[in-house]
Amino acid sequence: MEQTKIIPIGPYHPLQEEPELFKLYCEGEIVKDIKWETGYNHRGIEKLSEQKSFDQVFFLVERICGICSTSHPFAFANAMEEIGGIEVPDRAKYIRTIIAELERIHSHLLWVGLAGHFLGYNTVFMWAWKYREPVLDLFEAITGNRNSYAMFKIGGVRRDIPNAMMGNIRAAMDVLKKNADLLTGAVMDDPVIHARTKGVGVLSQQDILDYAAVGPTARASGIAMDIRADDPYAAYPLVNWKVITAQAGDVFAKAEVRLLEMYESISIIEQCLSKMEHEAEGSTAVKVWEIPEGMGTGRAEAPRGEVFHFVLTDGSNSPVRHKIRAPSYVNIATFRKSCIGQTIADATISLAAVDPCYCCTERLAVAYDLTGKRRLYTGSELLLLSQQKTLALR
Amino acid sequence: MVVGLKSLVLKRSLWLFHFGGASCNNCDIEILDCLTPRHDVERFGMLLVGSPRHADVILVNGSINKRDRERLLEVYDQAAKPVLVVAIGACGCTGGIFAEGNTFAGPVDKIIPVDAYIPGCPPKPEAILAGIVKLVQSKFGSL
Amino acid sequence: MKKEEYSKQIAARYPDHILGIEAIRPRRVTIDISPDIIRDIAGYLYSELKFRFIIASALHTRAGIEIHYHFSHDPSGFIYNIHTILDPNQAEIDSLSSLFSGADWIEREMHEILGIVFRGHPKLEKLISEGNWAEGVYPYRKEY
Q1: Number of domains present in the structure of chain B
Q2: Which among A17, A123, A360 is the top mutation candidate for probing chain B, defined by the most B β-carbons within 10 Å of its own β-carbon?
Q3: What is the CATH number assigned to the segment(s) C2-89?
Q4: Residues of B whose CB is below 8 A from C130
Q5: Is the pTM for the entire model greater than 0.90?
Q6: Residue C97: CA count within 13 A, CB half-sphere
Q7: What is the ipTM of this complex?
Q8: Nearest to B122 by CA among B94, B74, B90, B87
Q9: In a structure prediction context, what are the per-residue pLDDT tens digits for chain C, which is 144 residues long?
Q10: Which end of chain A, N or C, is less surrounded by CB atoms within 10 Å?
């Protein structure tokens, strides 16, 4: 009988704020198998959506996930505008794009911080989150909230970004560029980070295709897929930017893609601001009186990959069916390929590398419960993988 | 900005344990944000700990679904009493927009006793800190 | 145009099983099929046409248990919805999980919310419902 230890990275793990239960079956230090238990985060959002009016649904889907809180309303708006054949004014397109790209920046910074934290680089964590604050301040100035911006509605956006505010945004972007340089340099040139992330958590192109993975997870394995380029929407076809890919498919490649994407995002925002100055202030939405019966498939490129919303309507003011697929739903499943065969310490960073957003995935919260006593060779007790252990393995 | 922190520093350092229920993560991120340089709760001796057994304060956010409920009870049982419970965010306080969902089993105060509520969606880190300080002051008295 | 090519190709390959093809919007095509062909057609889309499986949406309507399998052809930005309808009293269809792992979880979820049986799925066990609702309850089924 083989000796197998079970180490749950349980809910309420200090390294992961979201609840999620991964059971790692290990032999010695190597992960042999993984079971993923979920259901802790299930809030029944798709069902709730059927009880809400379309306008209310925006507030609901925004709170699927706090970090990608623009992407869900974006995809939903794209789906609804597809059903109604609605064309959004150009200024609204630029505003939507700016908000989405600001979100990408803050999300990638958040991820870099968390990844640093998982690797035991608390300095990286602190820096990344410190540089994130001005982005959140911008959000607060533009939308009134640091998270959950309530900017989208069918036909456009709810609030304008007045031309007078553009100076602030541009100044913030300049500062951000300098900070991004610092952070990128620190992460990409550090030999210990190289040692911890290169060759770790590798996903091949075939793995990506098999799991239908998306976003930076896919782009880091050399697959140039990006909804902003493939199925263009909003202002993305109106500005110049490039899809960032890397080839190695390891954690380092995923970090590289996210860091370089931030620069593209900054460039997109700057271009949008310049173009937006020529659009009349206040032309932020078209009036939409009703939504006909129909079917819409809307998608957006969230920081983690493709968000997909499928909406069926019947002429009433509520969805008949609203199916939501967040990128993490397909990305997290790749852990079977990226974590098995790794050491326990590497499993954590491999899991984190797909930037899992459990709240998007389950629309269920997976919470980890930090209870349990250590037991070897048995199935159900939970163990805490402590931050100390990860740091000690650095 | 945060009133009474001196009294906190002089009294004790607070160990915080965070339980995220069925949430969108905004509150979780804002709580974590309290650790970061701008708000830097550690200079007041507040730490996020990894086990409820070490906790002085349990921060609960998220609407609680049926599966979380058992976990929340376990966490509360594990904490050495007395422990303060803070319900954070609209979901923590009342279940927020998810209270009508088919898996809702909360809100938090239906499951465990709550000592303070910090509403918001999400509450800003300043609000979270202010709430915790207000709670501690009211429980342990001010100087 | 790429759209015409793929629709025609798909229709040509499965003439007897395609119940309808509709292009309602630019870059969006819906293909109605009989359920028995799902595994063949999904395999064709994935392996030969190199489509990417996005997700599957299932719902219960007066027509029955409807499933839309959404596939993306990334180079052209097209979404192809492969649509089929099952009898609610015998909601069974072949699993796609042996073709690509991306189908695994969503089939488990569709099973939990609507009671659809995916034949050949290696482990049709709970994904999201454990503790959240009872066995045999399918919360997305409606009373008609």
Answers
A1: 1
A2: A17
A3: 3.30.460.80
A4: 67
A5: no
A6: 16
A7: 0.93
A8: B90
A9: 445 568 888 988 998 899 999 988 889 999 999 999 999 999 999 999 999 999 999 999 999 999 999 999 999 999 999 999 999 999 999 999 999 999 999 999 999 889 999 999 998 877 777 667 777 788 888 888
A10: N
